[in-house]
Each structure stands twice: as C-alpha cells, then as structure tokens.
Amino acid sequence: MITSRLEKFDGAAEKSRSPVRAIRVHEPGPPSVMRFEEAADPEPGPGEVLVEIHAVGVNPVDTYIRSGGYSKLPVYPYIPGNDAAGIVRGLGAGVTGWAVGDRVYLVGTGLGLGGYAEQVAYSAKHLARIPDAITFGQAAAVNVPYATAHRAVFERARVIGGETVLVHGGSGGVGIAAIELAAAAGATVIATAGTERGLRLVEEHGARYAFDHGKAGYEEAIRKLAPDGLDVVIENLANVNLDRDLELLARFGRIVVVGNRGRIEINPRTILQKDAVVSGMALWNATDAELASIHATLYAGLSKGVLNPVVGRELPLAEAAASHDAVLAPGAYGKIVLVPERR
C-alpha cells in the first residue's frame, strides 16, 4: 500500500529520515536573502503527489520576484522555483494517472511553487511526464522556457512556415526553445547571441544565421538577409533592443516581448507606418487548457528529438545565490540548473 509521505511506512523509517532542505526567501532583497535551511516536510494532500526533486531550473523571473521588484509577489517566506523535475515518491488521496517512480516535471506559472527544494508536494493536475530520452536537468529547462517560447512563437506571433523570424537573445533557455520551435514550423530563423560559444549554440539548434548583438553593424547584416524586413521578432531584452527591432520589422510584422529589464524610448510612428503589432507575453496569463495543450506538444517534440533543451551549467542547490547572479550575467548559454544533494 502506498502511503502519503515519502518512506513513512513505519516508525523506524520516519526516525531515520533526514529533514527536508530547501531554499527559502523570508524577505525581498539581493541573492543573499535566499537561505538554505530545513523546511517542513511536504505532505501531499488530496489531489497532490510528493515529488523528489532531482533538478530545478533557474530563470531570470526568479530573480525579479526574489528582489521584490516584480509586478506580483508571493507570501513570505516562500520557496522559489517553477522548473523542478524529479520522481514521484508518494500519492495523496484521489490521485489517478500517476504512480510512485514516475519521472515528472512541474507545470505551473505561480510565484513560488517550491522547486528549490529536495521534495515538494504538488498538484497532480500540474505535472508532465518526462520522455525517456530526456535527463532531469533537461526536463528542468522545459516548463518556463519552452512553454514561454511556444506561447510567444505560436499563440502570440502566430509564426507560419516560410516567414523570417529573429530571436533576439537566442542562446538562453527561452531563446533556444524559440529557435527550435520556429525552425520546426518551417520558418527561417535568425538569432543573436553575445559570445562565439553562444553563436555556435544557436546555429546547432536551428538558426540559419547568427549574429553577435554586441558588435556594431549586425543590424545591417540582418537587413541584407531580409531586405523587405522581418516578419517576426521574439525579443528577450526589450529595454535594449525594441527600437532597433521596429526598424528591422517588415510591414505587418509582429514583435513579441518576452523579456525586459527597464525602460526604452521608441518612435511609435514606426509602428503606425508598418501596421506593426507589438505585444507582450506573460506565461501566467495562459489558462490550464492552454498549458495542457502546450505541454502535450512539447512532449511530442522532446520524444522525437526535435526539441533538445540545453543545460549550460549545474550548481548545487545550496549555491542558489550564485545562480541568481549567473542567470543575469551577459553571455547566456542554455539553462542554469540547481541540483539537490542526494542523501
């Protein structure tokens, strides 16, 4: 008989268990406010499962929430992390469709879903199965990056085969996902990155052309490739690039802002002259039905090898503060993943 708590089959097992450890944030502030400490043992309630975390992805949005500068904030103290992947270790009452031992990743868009931990109790309705060929680290790069990219590329930009798509900032987690998805749809993908390593990475994942966005003149090179303008721009740093994106855009073109870290001055006349559309994209606005459809599509792409998440760096869970510095540093390369120590 499966119990509702990990290893809680008898008193001896309970006594031998180590307390669960997690990264907790008690107040907004710099990375140092994240504490690696013991936390209450998660216990799955009705409709929940207990997941033993093997990897959790770090996203820029994690840092915005932690600093207190985000438009929505969690209740303190909270455990960050929306991109955890691991193994089902317990089932709450009424759970069907999952079994102990299943490999899963969290599917959610909340503010503090508890992924920066050794274990988490999570809604069984908001889990996705990990394909056999995908590692836990790669699975920890799926939820936010790939769902964000899918919603930006297809639901917001409505990319179709034959269009020319620029992924501005293509070497990070969302950028790689957007490149792969747009290329799989038949688009000609141009991507930018900030290092030679990043440029090689975007080409390996489907970009037909790659440019260093830190070097002068790259916009002119893009104009030569797309003399009539770009059909779509997926923008990961709008406060730097939005004005030049508008100049590169074709008539009736679309820009989807995925990432932004400040203000920028633009000339709205360019939007008027081109009948252009500039839209934002926040993953938390997706409905449960949308998310279910997105992750079903992603499962197929991951299973067939069309989608290949990149883990650029792994750090121990205890070094979450360092990961928050690293994820905002220039020269993005795939996903930064935290790995809990197995005890």
Summarize this, please?
By secondary structure, the protein is α/β, with parallel strands linked by helices. The chain has 11 helices and 15 strands.
Task: Outline the secondary-structure elements.
Blueprint: H1 11-16, E1 21-25, E2 34-38, E3 48-58, H2 60-67, E4 84-91, E5 103-106, E6 119-123, E7 127-129, H3 136-139, H4 143-156, E8 164-168, H5 173-184, E9 188-193, H6 196-204, E10 209-212, H7 218-225, E11 230-235, H8 238-248, E12 249-257, H9 268-274, E13 277-280, H10 288-303, E14 311-316, H11 320-326, E15 335-339
Parallel strand pairs: 8-9, 8-11, 9-10, 11-12, 12-13, 14-15
Antiparallel strand pairs: 1-2, 3-4, 3-6, 3-15, 4-5, 5-7
Helix pairs in contact: 4-5, 4-10
Explain what the structure shows:
The protein has about 350 residues and is an alpha/beta fold. It folds into two domains: about 10-140 and about 310-340, Quinone Oxidoreductase, Chain A, domain 1, CATH 3.90.180.10; about 145-285, Rossmann fold. It is built from eleven helices and 15 strands. It has helices spanning about 10-15, 60-65, 135-140, 145-155, 175-185, 195-205, 220-225, 240-250, 270-275, 290-305, 320-325, and strands spanning about 20-25, 35-40, 50-60, 85-90, 105, 120-125, 125-130, 165-170, 190-195, 210, 230-235, 250-255, 275-280, 310-315, 335-340. Strands 3, 4, 5, 6, 7, 14 and 15 form a seven-stranded mixed sheet that branches. A six-stranded parallel sheet has the order 10-9-8-11-12-13, with helices on both faces. A two-stranded antiparallel ribbon has the order 1-2. A hairpin with an 8-residue loop joins β1 (about 20-25) and β2 (about 35-40). It is globular. It starts with 10 loop residues before the first helix and ends with a strand. Mean pLDDT is about 90; it is low at about 1-15.
